[in-house]
Structures are given as C-alpha cells and as structure tokens.
Amino acid sequence: MTDLVLKYNVQAPRYTSYPTVPYWDNNLNERQWAEHIKKSFIQHNKDGISLYIHLPFCESLCTYCACNTRITVNHAVELPYIETLLKEWQLYLNQFGEKPLIKEIHLGGGTPTFFSHQNLKLLLSNIIKSCDVSNKSDFSFEGHPGNTTREHLQTLYNLGFRRVSYGVQDFDEKVQKTINRYQTFEEVKYVMDTARSIGYTSINIDLVYGLPFQTNSSVRSTVEQIITLKPERIAFYSYAHVPWLKPGQRKYTEKDLPVASEKRNLYEIGKELFIEANYTDVGMDHFALPGDELLTSFHEGKLHRNFMGYTTNPTKLLIGLGCSSISDTWDAFAQNIKTVEAYTSAVNEGRFPVMKGHVLTGEDLAIRQHILNLMCRNYSDFNGSDGDKAILEECREKLNDFIEDGLIHITENTIHLTEPGKQFLRNICLVLDKRYWSKQPATNIFSTTA
Which of 96, 194, 197, 205 is deepest in the core (most CB within 10 A)? Predict the structure, then answer.
C-alpha cells in the first residue's frame, strides 16, 4: 500500500462539485443567475430545497483551517451580518414567487456558535417563517466544543435542529498548540452529553489526520477517546496543506508534517479502530454507526454530495447565503463575494452578491453524475447514452494503472471501486475530470490526495 500511496500522491480536488471552482467559466451575470434560480425553483421546489448559511466569524485563527473566516472578538458584528443575510434571503424569495419547501438547513463557518443563541434564533426564525418545512427535514450546525452552550443547543433544537457536528481535530497538546485549536476531552464529552440530553439524534465529530507533529500514538489516543463517546458519525479528514491560499499554515513547515506514507498510516490506524468499534466507512472520509441516517442512506443508494459535503437529503436546488457561500441550481453554480464588507455592500445595493459562476454544459452534467456515483455509491454505470460511453472510452487508458493496481474493476460500461480503491477515490474521479485534463494547472491549486 505504501508504494501506491507514493504513486498516487498528487494534487486533486475533493469534488464537492464538478466542474471544480478553479475551472468555472464565469459565464454568468446577475440576470442569468436570477433566471437559473427561477427555473430551478419551479422544477425542484416540490421535492424541497437546501439552504447553507455561512457564518464566518471566529474569535481566534485555527492555523490548519482552510475555510473562509473573519477573526474578531467584537461580537457587535453579529446583528449587522444577520441583517445582511436576511436581505440576501429576501432577494431569493423575490425570485421564487411562492413559499419554498425547506428540506435541509446547515450552518457552517467560521464558527456558527460565535453568534449568541438569541441572534441565531433571530436569523433562523425569520427564515423558517418564510418557508414551509418538509416533514423529512434535516437541520444541522457546526459547533465549537469550547463555546457551544446549552442555550445554543436548546434554541436550535426548538427550531428543528437534530444534528450537530463538533470540530475536535486532535486531543494531543503539542498538536493543539501548533494549530491553535484547544478543547479537552471533558469539554467534548460535556457538549455531546448536553446535546443528547436535549434530544439531538445524531452527533458528528470532525477529526483530522496529517496535522503537524501528529504521531501514530497521538492519533490512536485521540481516536480511542472519541470512540468511547460513541458519536453517530465521525468525519476523519485528510489535512489539506495549502499555505499559498491560507497563510496561517505557515506557522509550521512541511518538515513538521507527516510524509505521505506516514500520513496514510495515520488514516489506517484510525480506520482500523473505527471498524473495530462497529463503524462503517461511508463515501470518502466518513464513518457511521448502524442506525444513523448517513449509513442508511448509503445502503439505500440515496447518499448525495454537494458543497456541504455528504448529505442524506438530496436536493437539486441549494441556496448559499453569506460571504463565500456557493449556490447550486443543478445546471449552474454561483459563489458569493468572499469579504464581509464587499458582500454586505452588494446585498445592501439590492444585488445578488455573486463573484463568480458557471453554467454547466451537457457534458459537465454527465461527468458530474458519474463523479457523484463514484463518491456516493462506489461505482458508476456508463450505459445511459452514447455520451456516457464516450466519456468512459476517453478515460480507459488513464484507468489502466488503477486496474493493474487492483483499485477498480471495469466491465464493458461500468467502473466499480474495490475495497483498496476507496482510499484513492479522489485520484479515480480525477481521471473523469475532463476540464482538468484539458488545462492542467501550472501552479498549486489543490491539496494532495495522500
């Protein structure tokens, strides 16, 4: 396996979309975006829509983080930002023309629990009262173990939230000091116990492997401690070292990071412990206990992947609110302006705060579906059309190495991942990425796969 890790350790996207953001054509103006919103709403609202809300503020910088954040201890920023989010939501309501059916809400960041529980209630109650809520709704949020209070949990529960994700990353003191992310096992246990006592039915824990100064023993210790708490889901992410995008990662150097084979070993240690504890690996980076909707959705072939990651509630219309958030009408993508000030200014002018976008071609849509199939089902069938068959034929030569290495099995018109192949999912999807191969990057864009 070590030889394969070294062989396939290349830069590749995580494929929360296809085409990936660096390959968007930016062929979308505000009028066209409004038209795509209207069209998608008419087609898909009956099945429900998803809403992602980006809350970028954090009180301190976690140096490993690659998210779009704003560091401040000034909580006076909360209300003005909420007012802007509600104005942006009204822009979408104006396009819908009728009440949307909300199937999914996710609060991401940043640190959503930077906001007071009163202000989160103000934001969400105003959004929810403008909608009908699906009887199959899935509302979730990301919480920091160090600042998520009982009031946060109770307020969001009362608004319909049943799932919470806590970012832990690592319990080792040296690692925590280096990445400037502090929380104790006791803090994590407290917020998990509190959520369960209120009635939350699914708790996810985020862990990261490949961080500076991690060792086999430190990762083993962190994973063993988390397993004792029995979170329904665990996301075991590969650290993305992208210092050209996130200068905070320059607090340490590549010399402080485990090399590719060492990093892969950290993953194998974690995976082995998860499997022993009755977790099943689902898609890429995720593990779930029996009975959790993530695993049920995977077994039923209903798992979906979008800009929020894996989801059990597939929708064709995703609205992203807030700076840097991304929306998806299925046939078009749009990303909001990344800075709080410029985002706020655009919304206050009554404009969609879109900074870039992409209208998907027919070929884009076909490749997108095949990448989704591999990401969510571990196989894809290219029998659908002549275009599908052409996509596979163009890729056959590039797939030969994966076949020889026992990572995939190909019949005449299907690709199936083998068990070892699941660990090289990004590499296999990269083969299908026609836009990447038509214009390979000359500079660093993506993190490495190992």
Answer: 205
Dist. CA 83–CA 80, nearest whole Å: 5
Task: Provide the CATH topology of domain 1-17+361-440.
Answer: Arc Repressor Mutant, subunit A (1.10.10)
Give the amino acid at 74. N
Compute CA distances 33 → 150, 323, 342, 366, whole Å. 40, 17, 19, 21
The percent of residues in the chain predicted with pLDDT above 90, rounded, is 77
Closest CA to 114 of 139, 65, 148: 148
Buried b (16+ CB within 10 A) or exposed e, 102-112: bbbbbbbbbbb
Q: What is the maximum alpha-carbon separation in the chain? A: 60
Residue 450 has pLDDT above 70, yes or no: no
Q: Do 58 and 69 meet the contact criterion of CB atoms below 8 Å apart?
A: yes
Domain range summary for the chain, segments of one domain joined by +: 1-17+361-440, 18-321
Q: CATH number of the domain at 18-321, please? A: 3.80.30.20
